Amino acid sequence: MPHSPTGTCDPALGFDEEIGMGRQKKISYAFRARLDLRSDRFLPDERLAAILESWLERRGRLRATECITRISPSWPALKEAIQKGEHSTGYLWLTPQALPCRFIAAPGRSSHILQLYLDPLIPMERLAQWEAMVEPLYVLDPEGRVLWLNAAASSFWQTPRAGFLERPLWEWISLAQRGVMEEAWRRLFHEGLPAAWEIVLGPQGERGQARWLATPGPSWGVIRQIASSAEERLQRELSQTLGMLAELGHHLHDPRALISSALHLLIEVWKADMGVAYQVQGQRMDLLISFGLDEGFLARFSHLELDEPTYRAFQAHRYAWYIEDTRTAILAPITREIVEWAGIRTLVVLPLIHHGTPVGLLAFGYRWPRPAFSMERDLLTLIGNQIALALVTAERLRSALAELNRHQQAIAQIGEAGREAAQITDVEEWLGLALRILLKLARAEVGVLLLPEEARSSLSMPLVVGLKPEEWTPPADQRSLQVLMGMEGVQGIPWERLPGPLKDLLPSSVFASADVIPLRFAGRPLGLAILGRSRPISERTEVEARLIEALSGLLASTLYIFRLLEHSQRMARELTAFHTMIGLPGLIPEVPRLAEEALGRLLESLGFEDGWLLLSEGEGKGWYVRGRDPETVQT
Fold this sequence. Notes:
Elements: E1 19-20, E2 23-24, E3 31-36, E4 41-44, H1 46-56, E5 62-63, H2 64-67, E6 68-72, H3 75-83, E7 88-94, E8 99-107, E9 113-120, H4 124-131, E10 137-140, E11 146-149, H5 151-157, H6 178-191, E12 195-200, E13 209-216, E14 221-226, H7 230-248, H8 255-270, E15 274-281, E16 284-291, H9 295-301, E17 303-305, H10 308-316, E18 321-323, H11 333-342, E19 346-354, E20 357-366, H12 374-421, H13 427-442, E21 446-450, E22 463-465, H14 478-485, E23 490-494, H15 500-505, E24 513-521, E25 524-533, H16 542-581, H17 591-606, E26 612-616, E27 623-627
Antiparallel strand pairs: 1-2, 3-4, 3-9, 4-5, 6-7, 7-8, 8-9, 10-11, 10-14, 12-13, 13-14, 15-16, 15-20, 16-17, 18-19, 19-20, 21-22, 21-25, 23-24, 24-25, 26-27
């Protein structure tokens, strides 16, 4: 508190007085009083006496200790100055309403008499008005120290007024806000404009929240404390929540960024001290992001396993949990451990559930009790539902983009393989390339292609990619493989569910899951492709499944064409041998010439000059004619 301990009056006090060198002018003052330092008797003038008697509700002699709550400088310093015949200036507060006054103290006619000239800092009409208010009100100097507070403020804190005087008001608010409020108060006086602040009351936030309305004055300012009403608080929270949900739309491309932004905005809107976001997969919870928590918390609670009752309760809950006082609430063991570790007094939990499936959890807390209105609980439930929907949408978009990317990569791989396959003339090499493409699409490491015995005449079967010869066993029972070739295809099955004959083929130390793909063309079983991987496969996308099906169909058609070619080559070899035997070598592809020569020999042997031969082109395809004289032949 600024003051001049002794000597000439400080002009800033507003007294029209100059004392010294035996010269004395008239003093400007509102009240005057005499103080007997020996008897502690206080003798106010008539106006001040009337005020004090109304406050104390009695008449008669008054003592200084009854009338003065606090004085600055202290009594010993003041008495010492008077005994030396010096004048003093300072501040005092008249009880019981702690009216702050500037004063000049001058020696009286006797050495033990002190003359006091008093000028109240607060106009008396304002004092009566502020004292009657039901909301706490504080008068502060430009440095933020308390000059006066009304009875409502003293009652709110359950602290006598004297306990506040000349102390910064910021000592009664949250530690986290003190520096900010000191700067805000200085800026208030610099700008000269009123302001409204949301304040957390109590050093640890134990007194809840309030709104402070601050008004600056020439030499002091006023802070009026009001509790946030339900309507005002809900209106603010609702408007900010709508803005929050709109902002989440910017993060639909990234689920992690979305839930991080949601938690940050929740803490900002609801003025929380700390918060966490978890991803939920079954009964396991993994921490995604946190605010206001130390590394010890992160190390201890990054991964949680919920017991069955806790998980069932979480899964069945459809509303936000708002626990106003964690000290008396019945909590699950893991929740109790978390709130005690973090020092949470009020806990808010938003279960993120979509169609009955938990997908995440958002929680934030306060270090002080924060009562909730019923509509706030409903609003939080709505927020949780919307965040869950946005999170599921973001995850689906991410999956769709990933699927599209894999689709494009697969198409590129198939196109590249097609260009490579166009240069391949060896069937076995082509089949090996197709098998390697299947492995990429299925995200597998090992592939085996099995063919029935009748298709192995010129292929070194089975065809194996990704395994050394000593790492697998050729099939012993062909009949069981024939049965497998005729079954429906299965994909992504665990190793333990593989049919027995396939387990005998492949080493269990290598495989964790596999695809079994029968190769069929026009309903005919042509082979069996087995694709194995060393880890369990996640759910396969529809695009991947279609591409695998298409490529396996292409592989089957290639095998069918290869078998037709083999059959045709075998038939050609047999016909060539037959025609060589009857003297007509090399005529297999020249059927028309063969027919004409046969017709000529037949006519000569019969003695005919002309004739023609009708040859069938196939079932239902008509006839064509060959004759000695084609111009004379009509069909």
